[in-house]
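Form 7-S
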Amino acid sequence: MALRIRSRPRWMVSLAIAVGFAWTLRAADPLPARLTDAQFWRLVNDVSELNGTFRSDNLVSNEVAMQSVIPELTRVAKRGRVYLGVGPEQNFTYISALEPAMAFIVDVRRGNLDLQLMYKALFELSADRAEFVSRLFSRPRPDGLSRESTAQAIFAAFLPVPASEALYKSNLQAVLNHLMRTRALGLLAEDISGIGDIYHAFFEFGPEIQYSSTGRSGGRNQPSYMDLMTAADAGGEARSFLATEDRFTVVKELEARNLLVPVVGNFGGPRAIRRVGGYLKAHGATVSAFYLSNVEQYLRMDGLWPAFCANVAVLPLDESSLFIRAVRGGQSGQPFGFGLTSELGSMTAETKDCNSEGRR
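Output:
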């Protein structure tokens, strides 16, 4: 018997077309709530470029005034989006303020990836701030520190405590075991030795480690790690990632869910920022802030700022997306001699004349 096909009413056809069109335009899959260890390591390697060089190790920042912009940053930039940054620990302070859903730390040096992986292990192995500081500097934890302790109290307690070589050796092994066995990350031989060298610098110099402590960057009268962690904004509010247990936990949880992703890449390079942009667009995400430090200075010296601008043009932005940069001209009364302060800029306004091909 022949089948009889009944035609649909015109309104049903129109509805079906509309529904189908809406399906094709549906929002991309959201950012993951967590990445598996394999997904995390694959993303690191898929996005990264070849190792590059810089004039210093940059194990510690030198921007003691960096918290000055945080009140305005949190007023304009939206939480729960994606944070991009460069360099060492100052990213954690901005991340703890913005509470992003995901973060990428892009640096030209693979050494910074090793530094970030060391931090990843320390965050994940530490139950609280005091344990984190103990592990970071290989110093036994003093009595009397609690969840309510200020950063000043924590560092005041640790400063007179001598470093322990036995603790250093056991902690370093715990860091490597966590990354290679617990997380099953495929570290290169150079990563293993790099993490060892970095960790030894924190053991050697302790809470007074500075930007130039390793002797490869020159300069003096710079803030120590302790100075950076105990600093405050212009209104006197302490906002470092070690200022409170809640701020510390923001970063710790991102690390635990593999959502703080270290990347090797030149800001003006052909791959890293563009691939991050592609990943974010595929997940319907938007950049809240991009911390640049003073990298633009070097991009302009090398003629790479137009390429960087073109890379930024690939990122998903809106009017609230902000650059955070360090500029010359220290704040009045600043006790350190390096003379860097922080400022914000609109990502869309500053790159509106750029396009993805690098022309302006």
